Amino acid sequence: RIGSGAFSACKSINNLTIPDNLTIIEDNAFAYCTALKSVNFGKSVSVINSLAFHGCDKLSEVDLPEGLVSIGDSAFYNCDGLSSVTIPSTVTKIDNSAFDNCKNLTTAYFKPTTPPSVNSVDTGGYSMYVFGYYSTAITLIYVPMESVSAYKESKSWGQYKSRIFGYNFEE
User: Fold this and answer.
1) Total-model pTM
2) Is residue 100 exposed (0-12), middle (13-18) or buried (19+ Cβ within 10 Å)?
3) Block means of pLDDT (10 residues each) for the chain, length 171 residues?
4) Which helix (DSSP H) or strand (DSSP E) does residue 86 occupy?
5) CA distances (Å), 94 to each of 35, 37, 50, 98, in order?
6) How far apart are CA 78 and CA 75, in angstroms?
7) Does an H or E element contain 148, and which?
8) Would strands 164-167 and 140-144 be described as parallel, antiparallel, or unpaired?
């Protein structure tokens, strides 16, 4: 576990490798690490909590590890350099604004065959937005071919209906 705020505002971290035995990245663990360009996530990371990488504006691509289950509120909020993200098949929950205000995030690859829940949306709560309420940057959301309808019809993902396309992740 990397504790809450452990490396927050550390300006000297450029590249980060999360050890394979680490399972949880706590709130604000790497928030405002403005020099951070890349993260190699360990194989055991299962939870990324709220604001964990908030404000890491040089981070350009995020390829999250298989085994990850949950992404917290605003985990990658304000990561202006982020242009693409890959969500592993094991993710079941993504909290509100996880990728909000990522001004250059145009492409997201979602490998889960069942659309991940977004906060309370799937249980009748108010509407939440993974990419932010006014997100215009995200134009391509790729999901497994067999899951396109499920994503488009989901309360959590239907708002992105025109941006969801099938993708063959097996190739």
Assistant:
1) 0.92
2) buried
3) 96 95 97 96 96 96 95 94 96 92 93 87 56 78 97 88 94 65
4) strand 84-87
5) 25, 23, 10, 7
6) 9
7) helix 148-153
8) parallel
